[in-house]
Amino acid sequence: MPNSDWEPKWTAQGWTVSFSIEGRRIRRRLGIRDKSLKSLARQKAQQLYKEEWAFQLTPPTTKGVPFWEAAEGYFNAGGEARFLPKLITHFGEYTTIDEIGEMEIVTCAMQVYPDAAPDTHRRQVRVPINAVIRWAKGERKRPSTDKKRVRWLTPEEAEVLMDAAAKLTLPRHKEPELFTLKKIAFLLGSGCRTGECFAADTNDWNSATSQLFIPAELDGAGKTVSSERWVRLPSRSVHLMGELPESGRMFRTPYGKPIKLRKNGGGQMQTAFNKARDSAGLGKDVTPHTLRHTWATWYYAQTRDFGGLMDLGGWAKSEMANRYRKIAPDDLADRLFKLGWDFRQETGNFERKNPLRIVKYRKFYVPSSLSRGAPSTTRPRLRRQVYTCIYPGNKGKTVRLDRSVEYR
Predict the structure, then answer these.
(1) How far apart are alpha carbons 63 and 98 in whole angstroms?
(2) In whole angstroms, what separates CA 346 from the centre of its chain?
(3) Do residues 95 and 115 make contact, with C-beta atoms less than 8 angstroms apart?
(4) pLDDT tens digits for range 389-404
(5) Distance CA 340, CA 234 (A)
(6) Per 3-state DSSP, what percentage of the chain is helix, strand, and coil (rounded to 5)?
(7) Reported CATH class of domain 155-338
(8) Of 241, 178, 179, which is closest to residue 210 (Cα–Cα)?
């Protein structure tokens, strides 16, 4: 048994193991998150490897399973129970599913429904017996537990949400923080996943065409190879996003810090988003990921371009893109136009009326006049942010803007 088959590996989720047995891939997290416990991880990985081989060599068998027991399990798993009681009575306590063949099914039909038509025998005897046997042998298709999201925001709901986000304030701060509004505007206009939003870099922004390149390279910033793409933002999103840092991550936490990426993450903006959502009077079924469903519905309503929907949304399969595109009323496109949302691709001159401003800023602290006489350890201070704004196409001219916010 070569060690390389089951040797555990250290990942961000702790010790994991991955190996194949007769073409069957087994991937497991070992539940050990301490990197120094490699010996324990190896023991656990080796034990798992042995158990999987034992399962492969001696697979479970259904021989000896009584029909009534299989029927009970089939019913508990969500199967149709309408015709089962008479069949269970007929086969009794000891008849196993391996003993039921064509002759037994025909005999059951003639004894349970002696005067019924052949179609009744098929529907009420043959079909339920075969369903129970296939379920017991693991051959019956299991019902899907995948709950499709149907929630998306109307343009009016989105306006209320963004208005609430524009009024969010931080503790001990009077001025609203606009970082959450920037992220919401970007997600509504681009259709990006939240992780892609958090990883967006100013260096990947093309101000001439209002496009952003999504490299999908970092953990937490994308899912598949198809996620690598250019996304195009409507002017409404560009206007609401306002200023961008000169370099680095485009979007920040409510305190202005870069967002830490997490593999399979996306909830880093959940707290601030929930505050805006609750203030807007929207239900708990509205999450940051709802904005991706909203973008897909809005984009298709205005463009009717399914190929563009797949390319800009980063989906490899049309079935997945179709799940995000929801049924919408015929006037949705016009309602979006009236509120300034236009997802149609522009051609020709790419000069934008409201380009994003790339800003360079530095932070320094000055004592507040309100703190005079207070102990230095409790003295409130003002955090002053000085922005130097660089406008595209202004021949290098700069404008200086001072902004002060209370900081403790």
Answers:
(1) 6
(2) 29
(3) no
(4) 333 433 444 433 344 3
(5) 9
(6) 40, 15, 40
(7) mainly alpha
(8) 241
